[in-house]
Amino acid sequence: MGCTIDIDTGGTFTDGYFVWNGQVVTVKVPTTPHDLTVCFQECIKAGAGRLGLETPQLLYQTDLVRFSNTIGTNTIIQRSGSKIGLLVSRGMEDLELVGQGADGAPLVFPDMVLALEEEMSDQGEVVRAPDEAATLAAAQELIDRGARCLVVALNNADLNPANERLVRTAVKREYPRDYLGSVSIFLSSDITRRSGRNQRTNAAVLNAYIHASMVRLLYKAGEDLRRRLFAKTLFIGHNNGNVARVAKTRALNTYNSGPAAGLLGAKLLGELYGQSELISADMGGTSFDVGFVRGGEPSYELEPEVEGIKVNLPMLGIRAIGAGGGSIARVEDGQLFVGPQSAGSLPGPACFGLGGGEPTVADADLVLGILDADFFLGGSMTLHLDKAREAIESKIAGPLGVSVEEAALAIKTLVDQTMGQQVAKLKGNIWDAEATPLLAVYGGAGPAHACGVAEVAGLPKIVFTPHSAVFSAFGSSSLDVGHVYYKRVDLPLAPGAELAGLAAPMEAMRAEALKDMRGEGFDEAAITWAAELLVRPAGGGDEVRVAAQPDFFADTAQVEAVAAQTRELLSAAGQEVSGELLITTASLVAQAGITQHPIEEQSLAPAEESEQSRKGQRAVYLQSGVPAQDIPVYDQALLRPGHQLDGPVLVESVETTALVPAGWRLKVDQYNHCVLEKAA
To answer: Is the peptide bond before 550 cis (omega within 30 degrees of 0)?
Structure first.
């Protein structure tokens, strides 16, 4: 695979990672929130320019494009999704409405929920099928009330989706796909087959809510590529660590797909260093996203929260707080706050000069001297120091009665504390007090705040790469095509005839996977298979995720090994494991490899040559009450493996700036990565 493009659209910037016949170039362009296909194309155009090519010339010779985006997140936060009509079983009408209690309107309004007379037993047997006439009447009433799509979430549909499918058949018979009045209809059993009625309903509603906006974006992005001579497949990043075609992508799978790719990129770094324990910290323009790798495995959540709404569709575990370069600072009752509100890309921080008047972290970094107004994004964007100072003076320094520099330092200190406390909390929940996981920092704003975060979190070692500013796009470049399938089974994890009942659901999932993967362009010989089981104590308790071979149930030794592994995981989670075990859900993972861009070692340069990479010095305000001091500024592109710098120094690249404060030392290792450690 010679030529690949990976693009990750964030709230403030859109990042690109381009591999062209072994040459790597990276770009950042402002995100265009009104239409994400604009920044998508601008990112490709910028990458082509860096390679000295026209866009059609680049795309014609590109093997694949992978795309992760934030439109699902934005749609939920802004409450700008489709108006939903929800059909439930009689008795479910009083369930807590999806999104109720979150900021903004609920995703489903009370008058948009109607009940159907139907019944499915707890064993998954149809007791009463929904009446077709009553179903059509309910659907029509919701459509008349303004529903742009329908969600069907019936009781026990995770055990047997037959009644939900009958509802869809009845509605589609009245509103066939080729009619202009057709409405989309989503079944909860298609989105997830795990137990948990409320979480299953939430997942289906969220998927439907963002579906229309996702369809418009992704199909337009694909069409724009084809018009520019790209004849291959556009793959979409999924939050389970895979990519797939647009036609095989459910909207909810795209939520947090960019941060998920970043976490997998951090896992690659861990493998490179033989480090199985690390924390990933991504500070972009809008948020600070943290994840972890433990025992070589990335964080994974079985019941994640999507913007505060719990679902039972498993995905890579990312926790986000509103702390980024665009986070807005404010004073309330004499106290300073930073975030979670963000200036985004438009109008952006005051220093962008695009109309923003609120002081942000980026404005503070500029006032402190950490950022160079004339070299932001390599000089492609000029920052306005006067506007940054004015915003901080009027909104922060004045109300607090301090100088602009003191106010800017207070903003930086507070945001570093907020992020550091989040990392410390994560470390404390995952590792014991003696553990020192590696801190992998990335995102456009990450290197400028990395040491401040590490100081608060008590972590003595940090790594960031030449591609840290576009690290999620870099992580995307490692993703394979894949799909994950789930079936609720409720079978004992013990050798015997009952466990042999896994054969049928595994075979059904395999057949579905073969169909999907053929659609992706892969035959059976190219597919790798893996099983994942969700298991809990038979008497109740939380589930754990256990890896297994797809046919493990046919081998007593494998069954016993899986049971032993499960007991270890349950014990580590603090659960009682003396009794029997129950497999609640079986999962099959089908993947096909498409890319390999190895990170190569480089020979070490003489350390004394590091002075050749020095580009000047800049006055930086680093300590309260102490005048700004001139500190050296180095060009990261000219640093070589073996170089070493003692703080305080600044290290600039085209896309980011790293601050190495006093007491820290930066070394460039054999991979050309920057390793920051507390100086002895």
So the answer is: no
